Amino acid sequence: MINWTRTSCLSALAGILLAASLPACKKQEITVSEVPTSSAPSASQSPLPPNHPPINETAKTAPQQECSWTAPEGWEDAGATAMRAGNWIVRDSSGNSAEITAMAFAGDVGGDFANVNRWLSQIGAAPMTQEDFAARRNGWSFSVGNRPALLVPLQGKSEAILAAIVPLPDRTWFFKMKGEKSLVEKQRPSFESFLQTISWHLPKTP
């Protein structure tokens, strides 16, 4: 009688403990947490510098097939980029260098006056007034691939810029040399010859 009671008690206690543990196990199995995932920001979502054309617009407005050219001997090809349809470096025996780029952007990118003053700031020179710009503009007339253009020479204390601005109906091409002043001056004939090699492959207007 005593043994049966002890056995029954032990069995009953074991049953109670087992029953109590089952709901807890079940509860752990059905508790599911969903963590929302966030996708990495795309390139178009990344902030760009102020006044910078959108990356997708730049890619569309600088098509390399729109024009072709022949670079002079001595210009080291630095490779085209998303923004630069052409990209070269030229050096002299003294170690001076200048960079030449060919780029296109939609519209007029603020206009010739604004672009010239931006370039002046790049070489540490004082900005032009509207009157000064208007007086010099006619002297900058040039032709690039039989299209009217401006050839703009600018000088700072140690650096200079020589840039051609070629407006098209929906975009503007910029061919620009920037570097050590004496080297840019020495390379001017080569730069002008380069501009004369440019051929345009534009769709015919109806």
CATH C-level name: Mainly Beta
What is CATH's topology name? Jelly Rolls
The major β-sheet equals: 7 strands, antiparallel
Morphology call: globular
Query: Would you report the number of β strands?
Result: 9
Question: Helicity range of the residues?
Answer: 25-40%
Care to describe what's here?
The protein has 206 residues and is of the alpha+beta class. It is built from six helices and nine strands; from the N terminus they run ααββββααββββααβ. It is 34% helix and 26% strand. It has a single domain, classed as Jelly Rolls (Sandwich), CATH 2.60.120. 17% of the residues are buried. The radius of gyration is 35 Å and the shape is globular. About 23% of the residues have low confidence. The strands form two sheets. The chain has a seven-stranded antiparallel beta sheet, sandwiched between helices.
Provide the descriptors you would attach to this structure in a database record.
Jelly Rolls, globular, 6 helices, alpha+beta
How are the SSEs placed, and which strands pair?
Blueprint: H1 2-30, H2 55-61, E1 67-68, E2 76-77, E3 86-91, E4 97-106, H3 112-122, H4 130-137, E5 141-144, E6 147-155, E7 159-167, E8 171-180, H5 181-186, H6 188-196, E9 199-200
Task: Give a short overview.
The protein contains 6 helices and 9 strands; from the N terminus they run H-H-E-E-E-E-H-H-E-E-E-E-H-H-E. It has helices at residues 2-30, 55-61, 112-122, 130-137, 181-186, 188-196; strands at 67-68, 76-77, 86-91, 97-106, 141-144, 147-155, 159-167, 171-180, 199-200.
